[in-house]
Amino acid sequence: MAEIYQPERFVLKSPITVLNGDTDPDVKPIELYAWSELTSEDLTVHVVSGDHFFIDQNKEKVIEIVASVLSGIW
Prior knowledge:
- The chain is of the alpha+beta class.
- The chain has helices at 29-33, 54-57, 59-73, and strands spanning 16-21, 43-48.
- Helix 1 (29-33) links the parallel strand 1 (16-21) and strand 2 (43-48).
- The N and C termini lie far apart (43 Å).
- The mean pLDDT is 93.
């Protein structure tokens, strides 16, 4: 079953915000934009200083971005 299973594709009707560390060796920039396939709205990519653990390395900036995104929703 696992070999032939095809999940139902769906597209969100909301914007997507993606965050990434600028020195993350595990994520290529092109991979960030693949998220655009999952929304019919805008995709915003934020690159934050740090590696794969940029959330811990740059908490203030991550909180600033998340707060900004959420303030636009409310």
